[in-house]
Amino acid sequence: MTRRAKIACGVIAIWAVGLGLLVRRELGRGAGERLAQAALMVVPGAEFYSVSQRGRQIGFATSTVDTTSNGVSVADLFVADLVADNAVHRASARLMVRMSRALRLKSFVFELGPEMGALKATGEIVDDSTLRLFIATLGEKADTQQIRFAGPLLLPTVVPLALVLGEQPKVGRRYAFSVFDPTAMKAVRVALRVLAESTFVVSDSAVFDSVRTRWRAIHYDTLKAWHIEPDSGSSAAGMLSGWVDRHGRMVQSTQFGTFALLRGSYEMAYKNWAMDRKSGVVAGGAEDIQELTAIASGVPIEHKREVSLLRLRLHNSDLTGYELGGSRQTLRHDTLEIRRETTAELTPAYQLPNRDPAMRGYLLPQPLIQSDNPQVIEVSMRIRSAKDIGKRYRRMDRDPSAVARALNEYVFRTLDKKVSLTMPNALAVLHRKSGDCNEHTVLFIALARASGLPARSAAGLVYVGGKFYYHAWPEVYLGAWVPVDPTFGQFPADASHIRFVTGDYFRQAELLKLVGALQIDVLSAETPSATTTSPSPATR
């Protein structure tokens, strides 16, 4: 396994961070009166934020609110330079929203910068309970979805507004909301607690210091703010947290244990960062995002041979809602055992194409997985009928296990292992022939579904060189869901893969809640030739 192959999968696409910061949409249930009262007190204005990583500024964010006689509009921008694989990657996201005076959503536009795949999502409310969503990427035809909801559909900034405006928050009080989670396309219940009240001093204006060649604050505002935090286990943990002022605007927050947002003057938030970027300070000093989000292993696992059995203790995080049990994974309290499939378990009782109605959802195309595209279908047919592969795998075109193995080998050998911050798009990957674990995963899934083989995406952690890194891989249905890894060229994937979520690529954002908290103790690890056991705890 090359070094590039090892590190290529450590990064969760940074556009998901922008999504978590800027695009969570809230469903207020039973809070209409509170929201209406809050809406009357919305104050127009613009706020500016520095985005920092371990004390070093790496980006800039803004949030602007405008009010008119018949509506409220919000415009948010997030820009950051992140280091991954010894290179600087630009991450940017923009959200523009229109709401009624009662803070009910009318429409929104969410855009990712061209350096991240040029995704554009447009939403509009067509009646009181339907959101029509258009998603397009890389110039392709937009995918249209209809999403039903109940109650007022709101925005990220509306939750702090609803919490703070209308009545002063009380320390120790708990506030409940129904949140529409775009990463999972479903409504979830979120409970926020007010933990503390404090006073902040925030820079209001700045002057250029010619000696230090930097902008410095000259006037300050004194603000009262309340610390809000989701209850343990909440779906919004790590996203809707921070200090909120009396106008319902964030003063400062820490996102995913890695990124800090701090409000200040435009010059302090933007111009100093722009000067650092021009001089190369950001590029030369920022820490690698892969290493910042990695979780140390208690003891080294001998990884020259693929791991067949792994026992772990997971602690210091609420793991409610994660898919840690099932198939090869067995969870008992805080101890997780992962056992790699044997050869006998890779022989399903069906032949391709799979016609089980229960598997239909895993055979259909999706916006980023174009399994019905003629080019994808042609490549899948060519792989299944290839003479050199056919000699190794009998009944190649009908055997699910043989097809899965051949597709895994094709993707592994065809794609260059490169860190990517673009949206993983199967058709684009087929043309570009490079990417990280997300690109390998979506291309494999598209080829598998085009072959009549049920496939889905999984994400979690994988062990590489003493640490567990965030990673994505496909799973195929062979009588049970079996993970394969076209990035590492493993069939099936070895037992060092810890699955936390399955489903759409967007669900990977849920893993960000574990950053900075989850600890892992390696209890034992077995390979076909050796066993390693240790009671040593992991450190984070």
Walk me through the topology.
Elements lengths: L2 H5 L7 H8 L2 E3 L4 H9 L4 E9 L2 E12 L4 E13 L2 E13 L5 E8 L6 E9 L2 E8 L5 E6 L9 H7 L9 E8 L4 E24 L4 E17 L11 E4 L4 E6 L3 E6 L1 H14 L1 H5 L3 H4 L2 E2 L12 E7 L13 E4 L2 E5 L34 H12 L1 H6 L7 H15 L1 E2 L8 H7 L1 E2 L1 H14 L4 E10 L2 E11 L3 E3 L13 E6 L16 E9 L2 E4 L7
Parallel strand pairs: 20-21
Antiparallel strand pairs: 1-10, 2-3, 2-15, 3-4, 4-5, 5-6, 6-7, 7-8, 8-9, 10-11, 11-12, 12-13, 13-14, 14-15, 16-23, 17-19, 17-26, 18-19, 22-23, 22-25, 23-24, 26-27
Helix pairs in contact: 3-4, 8-12, 10-12, 11-12
Cα separation of the termini: 26 Å
* Continuous helix count: 12
User: What is the helix fraction of residues, given as a range?
Assistant: 10-25%
Shape: globular
Please outline the major beta sheet.
Answer: 15 strands, antiparallel
What is the strand content?
35-45%
